[in-house]
Design goal:
Blueprint (H helix, E strand, L loop, with lengths): L1 H39 L2 E3 L7 E3 L3 H4 L5 H32 L6 H13 L2 H12 L4 H8 L14 H25 L4 H9 L4 H12 L1 H16 L3 H7 L12 H10 L5 H25 L7
Antiparallel strand pairs: 1-2
Helix pairs in contact: 1-13, 3-7, 3-10, 3-12, 4-7, 5-7, 5-11, 10-13, 12-13
Family: Belongs to the binding-protein-dependent transport system permease family.
GO biological process, one term: transmembrane transport
GO cellular component, one term: plasma membrane
């Protein structure tokens, strides 16, 4: 009995030894920074000079109630998440179902659809900025058919929507590949049985495909939630870091960046905002899992 216990302990020690590099990286670059951000959120931080820390308790959190820019950033982020996640999920499903239908040249279309995912986010943003410019491609096409162009980058009512369109187009192909892999796992015999019973293509899609893909849809929605809540680079590039015009593209992560690195003495407040954002993402993810009819298997 003791010999078996020693053998088991030795095997466990060997396992942890081989895992130690990954555990060390996890501790240094994920767990450590998270704990440090929580620590900073209860302090007033002076980065310049001696880098002093002053404990302020919950003052950084109570400050959120009076910060109008934080409220605007949160509203912009929630609106962005509420529109982009369903739209990119629906588009990814439609694209995957189309490619899975056995159309001619589907290998070519798979490559074409997936190209935006392979392109750098910064490069895509710059391309869309050129397209959205007053003298850009989109306005030139609108004027060519007799319609008035739009000030996509300078109109507060349009700027965030322009980022939404870009991100829906660029992120849907990644989820399309996930859906496509799941679609190919659905037995063909199920569709054949439905055809024998007289089901049309819509009935097969709605009654067979969609229910079979619920675990994948849950995974896609969770990944979409996590990604969209962290919108930063596109908003930063579109507005040159300001969140404009008129704070219309200001997101929570961009505001955290501004308070952390652009304003003196607000690093602790930025850490509090980051902590609140992490809680919001966690709660949104748990709620999404709770209301999913099936637990994700992926």
């Amino acid at each position: 009995m003791q010999r078996q216990s020693r053998k088991k302990m030795r095997e466990m020690g060997q396992g942890y030894f081989f895992m130690s590099p990954s555990l060390l990286v996890l501790a240094l670059f994920i767990i450590g920074p998270i704990l440090y951000v929580v620590f900073l959120s209860f302090h007033k931080v002076q980065l310049l000079g001696n880098g002093s820390l002053e404990f302020v308790g919950l003052d950084n959190f109570s400050r959120l109630a009076d910060d109008s820019r934080a409220q605007i950033a949160l509203w912009n982020t929630i609106k962005y998440v509420a529109i982009v996640v369903p739209a990119q999920t629906f588009l990814a499903l439609v694209l995957a179902a189309t490619l899975n239908a056995g159309l001619k040249g589907q290998q070519f279309f798979r490559i074409v659809y997936f190209l935006p995912t392979l392109t750098s986010s910064a490069v895509l943003t710059l391309i869309f900025m050129w397209m959205y410019n007053k003298n850009g491609l989109i306005n030139s096409m609108l004027e060519g058919i007799g319609l008035q162009g739009y000030n996509f980058l300078g109109d507060p009512d349009i700027a965030l929507n322009a980022i939404m369109i870009m991100n829906i187009w660029s992120t849907a192909p990644f989820f399309m590949v996930i859906y496509l892999a799941a679609l190919q796992d659905i037995p063909e015999s199920v569709y054949e049985a439905a055809e024998i019973d007289g089901a049309n293509w819509f009935q097969k899609f709605w009654k067979i495909t969609v229910p079979q893909l619920r675990p994948v849809t849950s995974f896609v929605a969770i990944m979409g939630l996590i990604g969209t809540f962290q919108l930063f680079d596109q908003s930063y590039i579109f507005s040159a870091g300001s969140g404009g015009p008129d704070n219309s593209t200001l997101t929570v992560v961009l505001l955290i960046y501004q308070y952390a690195f652009k304003t003196l003495g607000t690093m602790g407040y930025a850490a509090a905002l980051a902590f609140i954002l992490a809680l919001v993402i966690l709660i949104a993810t748990l709620l999404q899992r709770k209301f999913s009819k099936e637990e994700s298997l992926y």
